[in-house]
Structures are given as structure tokens and as C-alpha cells.
Design brief:
83% helix, flat, mainly alpha
Amino acid sequence: MLVRRLLPAMQTEEALRVTKDVMERMEQAQQDLTEEVVKLAKANEQGIKQLERMENAISSIGKLLVLLDFDPTRDLDLLKKFRSQGFKS
């Protein structure tokens, strides 16, 4: 794995801990964020803002994962689309 060659073992272990933690939180959010919750949140200005922040975070994570796994023979159209949208952190 490329990351393991680039990072010392301690940093690699920390990266694995962080990714596992994020994965578990996202899986829990997937279970908690039901259709009913989203509909009710959209009925409130604060809920709309929270959903927008969530959407931006999910979009940024997805873009990062896709762009770091970029294969020009397979993903050129995706890269062009992402670049046209900009990258939000």
C-alpha cells in the first residue's frame, strides 16, 4: 500500500485509527438519518443549514476519496466534473 511506504508506522497506525473512527461515525449517521428525519429537518431553517453542512462534508469526503484513487483510464470524466464544481473543505 502506497500510504504505508510514505508514512512511518506510528503515523500509519494513527491514520488507520482515524479512518476507522470516521467510518464508524458515518455508519451510525447512515442509520440515524432516516427519510423522516430529513423531511422534518427541512421544515426548519436551522435544520436546512445543518443538512447543507452535512451535504458539503459528505461531498468533500467523497471527492477526496475518489480523487486519491484516480485512475486516468477510468475516471477522467469524474475528475473533470469535480474540478468544475470546485473542492470545498
